[in-house]
Structures are given as C-alpha cells and as structure tokens.
C-alpha cells in the first residue's frame, strides 16, 4: 500500500495530483457559469486554500496525496472549546494580512474559497493601522448580501471558524473583542443564511467562554467586551439589538410550545448576549450639547467629592434608611428618636444585614465594575423599550421561571437533562412590566406560604394568612397609623400578607372592593391642603412633596410610604400622581437636573435658558445662589443654596454649579426629612423584595398609580356579559352608545363607579376583566356595582335616554363600595 506521507511520494506524482485537482475545480467553475478567466483565478485560489488546509491537518489528506481537502462542513463543525483550538490550529501561525474594504469587495467573486475570518480582525482604515473602518465594513457586508450564494457561505464559514479560534485560553484580547463587535455589525446576521448555525454558535461561544465578572476581579473579560460594544454609535448598536430580537422571535416560533423558553439553549445564549448590549447602551450615552457636558462635568466633580462613608452607605439601593439609623447611633442619638422610630430603624438595619449576608442584594457585579445603574440613566444610547421582547413575554411561564430562580440546583434535587438553571429574573430588561409584576406576585405568595408553614410546624394556628385592620371612617388616618405601628412591633413580616380592611359598624367581606375604597379615603385625607404635606401642580398634574412645612408630619409620610408598598402587594392602584423622580429616589437613585423636565417643567425651562445664555446675559439676570419658595399660605421663603448664598452672584463661570445646587435642593435637600420617612415606610413593606432588581422608576410608577394611557376600545372589547345580556342585547347596545358619547372625565368616573378605581392597571384595561350583568327588567332602580369583582349591575332599561339618566345619576351619587 502506498504511503500517505508526502515525503515518500515522487515529485511528479504530486504535480500530477495538483494538475488533476486544478482541472476538476476549474471545470466545476465553468459549469457554474463563470467566465474562463474568473474560473481560472478562483480555481488557483481554491487550490491554495486546500493546500493550506492539508498542511494544517495532514491527517485529512487522502491516499492520493492531498486531493481530499475539507469542504465547508469540515472546517465549520460544531465543535467548540479550547481542546479543539489546541488540536487543529498550527503551533506557529503566519502573520495574517490586512485588508481594506475595497479589496475585500473586489475579491468577493472568489470568496467561496477564501478564508474570510481575517476580515473580522484586520479590516482597517487605509490611513490608520489601529482604527476600524466601520463604514467600509458595512459596505462589505452589504456587498456580501448583494452577491449572496458563495460569498455569503464564505462569511458564514468564517464566523463559525472565528467563534472558537478567538476564544482560545490565551487568545483573549481587546482586539479580539473588537473583532466580535465587527462580526455583529453585519446588518444581515439574523437572515436565514446565518441564523441556522453561525449566529447561535457565535452567541453560545461568546457567553460560554467569557468568565463571569466577579467583584474581586480588577480587570474582567466581560467588561472588555461591553466596552468594545459601547464604542459603536447608536445606529449600529440598535441594529445589533434588533437583529438579536429577530433571532429570538424566530426561535420562539420554532420551538415546541410545550418547551419553556428559559430552557432553550439558543434563546439563553441570545439573551445573555443581549445583556452585554444593554450594558453597552448604559456605559456610553450619546454625545451631549456643550452646556450639558459642562453640567455633567460639574456633577462629576461634586459627586467625587462626596465622603467615602456616604458612598459605602449608599452602595446598595435598599440601605438608605439603615444608613440614616447608623448615623443616628454614631451621633449619640442627638437626633432624638422616638421609641417607635428606633424600632423601625433597627428593623430596617437588621433586615438589610440579613439580606447582605444571604447574597440577597441582587446586584450584578458587572454593573458595579462598569459603574452603571439603570435607575440613574434616563436616556441610554438605545431606548429601554428596544430591549423588551413581547414574544418572549408572551411565551414565558413566570411560575416555572420563578421556580428555576429559587431552585438553581433543581427542584427537590430532581433535575431535567436540559434544565440550564437560567432565569429571566436576572435579565429584566427583556421583560415588560406585566411579567415583572408576576415575579413580584410569586415572591409575595412564596413568603406567605412560608409563613403559614412555619405556623403549622409550630402548631400555632392562631395566626391568619391576612393582614387585617379595623378602622373608623371618621378617624381613618390615626386608626391606620396605630394599627400598622402595632404590626411593626409584633410581626413586621405580616405587612406582606394579603391586606383586608374592615370599617367600624359595617357589614361585608373585603374581596378587594373595601380595600380600594379604604385607600381612596385615606389618600383623600392625606392630600388635603390642611395637612400641608403636598402641593398640587396643575400644569403637570403631580402631587409634589411640600418643601416648606409648619408641622411634624413624618408619621403621615411614613404611613403613605407603607400604603405604596401595601398597594403593590395587593394589586391596587393609588389615586396619587407622584412624579417619576420620586419613584427613582425610592429605588435608590437621586434627583438630578434632567428630572426637573417632568417634575418641575417651568423651572427646567428657565434653568435651561440660563445654561444656554452667554456671560453678559447671565450677569444681567442678577441671580444669587439662593432660591425662593412659597409656603402653604403663599408666603415667600428664601433659602441659601450654599454658605452665604444670598451674597454670591451667579455668573458665566459658576452657572453650572448654580443649576446643580438648585436641582439638588428642589428635588432632594428641601424634602429630605419628609422623603426619608416616606422611604422608610415603603421599605418596611417591600423589604427583602425583588422590587428594586426588577423595576425601573417608570415601571414602579405604573404599578403604583396605574398606566396613564386609556384604551377604551380594549375595555369594550374585553367586557363580558351575564344574566341574559349579550353584546347584541338592546340594553347593551344602548349602554355602549351612551359610553361613546362620554368625555374622558365621565368615562373615568364610570370606571371608578364599578371597579372602585379610575386607574389603568399594569397590562391595560383588559386586566380588569369587567362584566355587565342584568339585574332585572326595566325599572326605576339605579345601576349598582360589585367593585370587588368589577361587575356592573344594569337593569334592562327599555329606553336609551332612561339608561343614560339613571347611569349618570348613579355615577354622581355613588361613593365607591358604599353603593352596594
């Protein structure tokens, strides 16, 4: 048998084999329709490539001395990992050439037989040896798409080779991460040509081979990749996000409906790759106007000068109240806490320490290393909405994903083969507010079940799985405060139980309607001008914390904070419009200049004009470092923004400092005492909750006060009927005819009449599951409602005008649950 060693083969045999191979390749190109000169050029190039392959892996040479050379399926196998790299790539690699976009585009006709993986690492601008020619790269990808066929297959093969070569153990570098970015810039990477193998394999290799960031690491690999993505402009980064979203959507359609999306390997790799893009959008926002850049520079200086103690105290989103309690102790109790305040602060600190000890802070080490916090970034390079995938949200079974989160090592030690222990909880940017609320719901129910099991285990069934309070309508604030203070003293965990209200001297079981009325009545009292706790801004429609107060209302603010938490855990929307900035502060953020745009738009406009003004215009305004506010009686009260602020003039140089101090005073310092009490109350209910890991300020605002958009067509479309009514019934037709004539205010009043609230819950009006039920024949009785179940009880009025008159009269005279 002839040896397969090329050294033992006569020279003329090798030449003959080469000629035969060249002839067969050339003839094949002619059959493909290429001109003789093009076929000859491509045959020569293919011959060179096959020779390189044989030299790299002699074991694949055929008995005829190398005529068998691996085709695409050989060099683009699915094997990944370091072993494959060490086994098949040469020990000594030759320097790879540098190509420019124009060269590569010109060589596309021969791309089928050219290893284009070099393009991802070495496509550079002609004028520089270190800068990527991004425009040229996009032109190259467009040319590949236009050429199609062989050129596209070559790029696919290049990606599949590149994806494991670049992640060899000693081959990770910033240049290679930049090469990853260059690969993803391909605007067509989510097309069928790449979607079958190239893209999923690239994402899988990317997420499986980069070590996860650890807090102890000084220079982690994940941060290098994120920073490489962050170099892209918003258009390119958005294109990559949209491509991955398309790939996720297609994969969701492909997989079996019985298979959970959090167990599919491809979806998991796509989502984990999306995490890097999400963080990249936060790391490097879009360029700012000059005055914004100067303002930001001043903010950075101010923030960097903060004490280390404050930095440590606010390291986590949840510990501000505990830090305040610690400060009290360090000051020897000079703040003169009451016994109740001391108990609350100790409780918050205890829960905080337990949460830290159990790893329950839910912070991403990579976020900390990159110095980003999505709570504080109002306008990332790409809008947050671009990262939400509705197809994933529709397919996600939250209860199963939540189990995966709680039992990462398998439920009861029984793990399925394909269970990857992945949970979307750690990727909340992909989820809509409704799905996040479901996570909150399951977390609450889990806590309640654990409480009941503990009671059963101890043999003490005296405790009920409800938080029951009994209040008087005439003394609702004091009654509520007293009973909640007793709960805090005895069993703070009970604040997360299902909330049940009983009014003194009234019969009825609280199925939700009584609680809704309770919140409405209590908030109505708190928001009264007599208390002076809030100022209502008619321009914005917001209730704002009153910075100038004449009485101690900290207990009332504490109660309001608890009400927000209770409303969240009991799916009740509150009739109080707080600015998004307040919810940002609740999640651990800080009010900043840009927050004034919506919280105080008139102030924002004036300060913006100041920042854009020239030196002479600023000085002509005769401003000082002070601000004048009005108290609850309309009297002006002046405050210094810094020491001796009324004696310091604002000029063209210090205007940025003035604006920063003004915004900080208005949004933070002026309401500090009130907001701290409010925040404590909120934390008392939401302690050890995933709330702060899941929600952005806008989303927290939505679940507390409801969505601001009313889709009345959705209400009509999802309404059901009972008791003999149907959509075709004349009384129902008359009802919707009257409804269509109502203005916005009247429709909201009707909504409150038969659901107990005029707010839109997270998920839209369809979540209310409203029903119109026939309550007898035509009569002079008014319509009534079961607000607990969102049911409108409507007599079968025979006349449209009569229905309209009775309905409006019922709406005007009803008071929540008291109608029944």
From TrEMBL:
InterPro entries: E3A/B/C-like (IPR044611), HECT_dom (IPR000569), Hect_E3_ubiquitin_ligase (IPR035983). SMART domains: HECTc. It catalyses: S-ubiquitinyl-[E2 ubiquitin-conjugating enzyme]-L-cysteine + [acceptor protein]-L-lysine = [E2 ubiquitin-conjugating enzyme]-L-cysteine + N(6)-ubiquitinyl-[acceptor protein]-L-lysine. Residues 491-820 form the HECT domain. Keywords: Transferase, Ubl conjugation pathway. Residues 47-84 are annotated as: Disordered. It comes from the Eukaryota. PROSITE patterns: HECT. Its EC number is 2.3.2.26. PANTHER family: HECT-TYPE E3 UBIQUITIN TRANSFERASE, UBIQUITIN-PROTEIN LIGASE E3C. This is HECT-type E3 ubiquitin transferase. It comes from Oikopleura dioica (Tunicate).
């Amino acid at each position: 048998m002839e040896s397969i060693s090329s050294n033992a083969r006569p020279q003329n045999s090798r030449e003959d084999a080469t000629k035969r191979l060249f002839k067969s390749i050339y003839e094949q190109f002619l059959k493909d329709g290429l001109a003789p000169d093009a076929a000859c050029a491509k045959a020569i190039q293919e011959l060179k490539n096959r020779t390189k392959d044989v030299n790299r892996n002699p074991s694949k040479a055929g008995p005829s001395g190398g005529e068998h050379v691996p085709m695409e399926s050989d060099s683009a196998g699915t094997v990944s990992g370091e072993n494959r790299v060490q086994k098949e790539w040469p020990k000594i690699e030759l320097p790879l050439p540098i190509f420019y976009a124009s060269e590569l585009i010109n060589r596309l006709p021969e791309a089928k037989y050219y290893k284009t993986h070099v393009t991802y690492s070495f496509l550079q601008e002609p004028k520089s040896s270190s800068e990527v020619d991004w425009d040229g790269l996009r032109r190259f990808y467009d040319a590949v798409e236009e050429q199609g066929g062989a050129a596209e297959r070559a790029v696919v093969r290049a990606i599949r080779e590149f994806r494991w070569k670049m992640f060899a153990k000693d081959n990770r570098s910033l240049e290679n991460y930049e090469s990853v970015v260059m690969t993803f810039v391909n605007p067509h990477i989510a097309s069928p040509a790449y979607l079958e193998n190239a893209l999923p394999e690239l994402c899988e290799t990317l997420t499986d081979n980069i070590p996860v960031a650890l807090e102890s690491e000084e220079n982690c690999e994940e941060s290098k990749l994120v920073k490489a993505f962050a170099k892209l402009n918003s258009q390119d980064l958005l294109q990559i996000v949209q491509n991955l979203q398309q790939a996720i959507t297609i994969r969701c359609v492909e997989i079996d409906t019985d298979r959970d999306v959090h167990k599919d390997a491809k979806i998991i790799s796509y989502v984990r790759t999306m995490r890097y893009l999400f963080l990249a959008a936060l790391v490097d926002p879009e360029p700012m106007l000059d005055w914004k850049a100067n303002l930001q520079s001043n903010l950075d200086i101010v923030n960097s000068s903060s004490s280390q103690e404050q930095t440590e105290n606010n390291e986590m989103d949840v510990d501000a109240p505990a830090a305040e309690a610690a400060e009290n102790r360090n000051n020897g109790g000079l703040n003169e806490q009451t016994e109740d305040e001391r108990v609350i602060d100790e409780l918050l600190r205890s829960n905080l320490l337990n949460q830290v000890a159990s790893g329950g802070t839910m912070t991403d080490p990579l976020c900390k290393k990159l110095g980003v916090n999505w709570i504080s970034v109002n306008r990332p390079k790409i809008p947050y909405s671009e990262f939400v995938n509705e197809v994933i949200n529709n397919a996600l079974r939250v209860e199963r994903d939540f189990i995966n989160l709680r039992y990462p090592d398998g439920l009861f030690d029984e793990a399925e083969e394909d269970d990857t222990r992945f949970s979307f909880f750690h990727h909340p940017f992909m989820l809509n507010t409704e799905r996040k609320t479901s996570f909150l719901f399951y977390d609450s129910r889990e806590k309640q079940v654990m409480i009941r099991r503990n009671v059963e285990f101890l043999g003490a069934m005296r405790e009920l799985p409800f938080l029951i309070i009994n209040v008087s309508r005439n003394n609702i604030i004091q009654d509520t405060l007293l009973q909640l203070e007793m709960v805090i003293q005895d069993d703070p965990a009970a604040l997360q139980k299902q909330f049940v209200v009983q009014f003194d001297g009234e019969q009825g079981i609280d199925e939700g309607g009584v609680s809704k009325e309770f919140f409405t009545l209590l908030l109505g009292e708190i928001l009264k001008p007599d208390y002076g706790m809030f100022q209502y801004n008619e321009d914005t429609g917001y209730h704002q914390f009153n910075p100038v107060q004449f009485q101690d209302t900290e207990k009332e603010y504490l109660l309001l904070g608890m009400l927000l938490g209770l409303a969240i855990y009991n799916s009740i929307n509150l009739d109080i419009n707080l600015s998004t900035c307040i919810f940002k502060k609740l999640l651990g953020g800080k009010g900043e200049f840009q927050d004034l745009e919506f919280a105080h738009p008139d102030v924002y406009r004036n300060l913006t004009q100041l920042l854009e003004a020239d030196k002479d215009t600023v000085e002509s305004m005769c401003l000082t470092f002070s601000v004048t506010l009005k108290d609850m009686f309309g009297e002006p009260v002046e405050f210094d923004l810094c020491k001796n602020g009324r004696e310091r003039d604002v000029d063209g140089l210090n205007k940025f400092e003035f604006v920063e101090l003004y915004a900080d005073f208005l949004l933070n310092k002026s309401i500090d005492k009130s907001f701290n009490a409010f925040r404590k109350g909120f934390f008392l209910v939401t302690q050890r909750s995933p709330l702060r890991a899941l929600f952005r300020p806008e989303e927290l605002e939505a679940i507390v006060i409801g969505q601001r958009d009313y889709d009345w067509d959705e209400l009509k479309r999802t309404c059901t009927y009972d008791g003999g009514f149907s959509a075709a019934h004349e009384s129902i037709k008359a009802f919707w005819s009257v409804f269509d004539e109502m203005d916005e205010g009247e429709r909201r009043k009707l909504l409150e009449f038969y659901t107990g609230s005029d707010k839109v819950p997270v998920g839209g009006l369809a979540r209310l599951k409203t029903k119109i039920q026939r309550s007898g024949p035509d009569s002079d009785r008014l319509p009534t409602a079961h607000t607990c179940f969102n049911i409108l009880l409507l007599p079968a009025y025979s006349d449209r005008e009569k229905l309209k008159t009775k309905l409006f009269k019922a709406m005007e005279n009803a008071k929540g649950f008291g109608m029944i």
